[in-house]
Amino acid sequence: MAAARRGRPPARPHRDPGLQPERTTMAWGRTLMAFVVVAAVFLRWISHHGPFVLVLFALACLSAGAIYLTQRPRYARGARGIARERAEPEVAAVLATSVAMLALASLGIWVVLVLV
Questions:
Q1: How far apart are CA 45 and CA 56, in angstroms?
Q2: Judging by beta carbons within 10 Å of its beta carbon (0-12, 13-18, 19+), is residue 28 exposed, middle or buried?
Q3: Of 2, 32, 52, 60, which shows the fewest CB atoms inside 10 Å?
Q4: CA angle at residue 34 from 32 to 35, to 5 degrees?
């Protein structure tokens, strides 16, 4: 039975493949890429602003990793919510991402203005 299923794509939990879970997953993917780009920019700052920048790099990488690790469960919850017609917002994920971005921005400004 498993061999017969290998060639087929996995069953979707809802009928419309353009619904919110797919768009939301794409948005989280763009956010993940933004954190990766920010981490790369912080690596370029090390020679000018010193080793404290590694803290910023680590925070950006941790944020990107957290988004990556929660993508599948988040998609599954959204798809099940659409199928049940009871989707709930991901308040904790959005709040955590906002806090991480605010911390990165604040520390980045501090590094540029104070550690010059």
A1: 10
A2: buried
A3: 2
A4: 65
pLDDT confidence of residue 84: 82
Cβ proximity of 70 and 96 under 8 Å:
no
Cα(77)–Cα(13) distance, rounded to whole angstroms? 10
In the prediction, which pLDDT does 7 show? 59
Structure tokens at 8: 């087929």
How confident is the model over 86-115, as pLDDT tens digits? Answer: 878 889 999 999 999 999 999 999 998 987
Residue 8: pLDDT over 80: no
- Are 19 and 85 in contact, with CB atoms under 8 Å apart? no
CB 67 within 8 A of CB 97: yes
Token pair, residue 101, equals 């971005």
Yes or no: say if 115 and 52 are a contact pair by the CB < 8 Å rule.
yes
pLDDT at 3 over 60: no
